[in-house]
Amino acid sequence: MNFKVANIEFLDFADGFFDAIISVDTIFFGRKMEPTIAGLNRILKANGPIAVFNGDYQQGNFLASLTTNKSTYEIYDFSQEQVKHMLLKHKAAKELQKAFEAEGNTFVWKDLMVESFA
């Protein structure tokens, strides 16, 4: 697996260069969203995924730009309530670690830890 870092507005890569693209708190640095999305689509292989992690996906007409560029998308909104739930789940799993081990279910405990931000 190889990773590349680039300026989101000046993507100097060949068409279809990437299998997947991940943008963590960066896509909104592009000044114009539609050309930014078009550029990402250009350098992505056909049917390759783009994952965008950002707290405000409505910012900068992001969703409208996806539609304009004929991009399909799914939104996963990790709300504050879900974060609180996951933290509570993590705390409970930590407290029950010995019980899981005593039952021979350490693998279940490890899965709970991973699912809850371990």
3D architecture notes:
The structure is a single chain. The protein has 118 residues and is mostly helical. The protein has 2 domains: 1-77, 3-Layer(aba) Sandwich (Rossmann fold); 80-115. It contains 5 helices and 2 strands. The chain has helices at 33-43, 62-68, 80-95, 97-102, 106-115; strands spanning 21-24, 50-53. Strands 1-2 form a two-stranded parallel sheet. Helix 1 (33-43) links the parallel strand 1 and strand 2. The protein is elongated and about 55 Å long. The two termini are 24 Å apart. The model has no long low-confidence stretch (mean pLDDT 85).
In DSSP terms (H or I, runs of 4 or more residues), the helix count works out at 5
Indicate the proportion of strand residues. 5-15%
- Low-pLDDT residue intervals, each spanning 5 or more residues: none
Biggest sheet architecture: 2 strands, parallel
Q: Classify the helix fraction into a percent range.
A: 40-55%
Which fold does the CATH topology of the largest domain refer to? Rossmann fold
Record the strand order, biggest sheet: 1-2
Query: Could you tell me the radius of gyration in angstroms?
Result: 19 Å
Overall number of strands: 2
Looking at the structure, what is the overall shape?
elongated
Arithmetic mean pLDDT: 85
- What is the CATH class name of the largest domain? Alpha Beta
